[in-house]
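Continuing the series of single-chain predictions for the mutant panel. This is the parent chain; the variants come on the following pages.
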Amino acid sequence: MRNVMQKSALILALLAAGAVSALAAGSEDDFKAAYAAAEAANKEAGKLRNQWTTTAATLTAAKKAADAGDFDKATASAKEAEALAKASIFQATSEKTRWKDMEIR
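Parent structure:
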């Protein structure tokens, strides 16, 4: 059951990342907004004690692309990081009660 939940969270994250990367284009302001949203979602995942390392790596990539002036790539990476953070939040909240399903009775 846990494996199914992990796969569904991963699929959700990948679908969201693919959808937002197609929409990502823009300016420095777009990047800043996307990066702030990603950081907020990642902070919430941290409060749930379920931050994914891939989210941190994607945030770093977004910052690096912005520093290089590639705001299209930076915005896409920031939106992908937000999707990953939201998937980790979903995983944390859904597994809060799902563990009871696996308990031997």
